[in-house]
Backbone:
């Protein structure tokens, strides 16, 4: 699945962690005051996700 969102948060991180997302198009992917989204960060760093950085 390709996840397209202006900002991605907790629910998006759950989809990534469940292995349902292969590509992400977003401006921001995090948990706001809680920091980086751990599952997204892990998979993006490992090269398991295609990440397209968008602008607002």
Residues:
């Amino acid at each position: 699945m390709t996840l397209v969102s202006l900002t991605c948060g907790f629910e998006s991180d759950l989809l990534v962690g469940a292995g349902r997302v292969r590509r992400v198009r977003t401006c921001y992917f995090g948990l706001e005051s809680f920091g980086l989204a751990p599952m997204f960060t892990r998979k993006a760093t490992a090269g398991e996700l295609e990440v397209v950085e968008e602008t607002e």
The beta strands are 2-4, 7-8, 23-26, 28-29, 50-53.
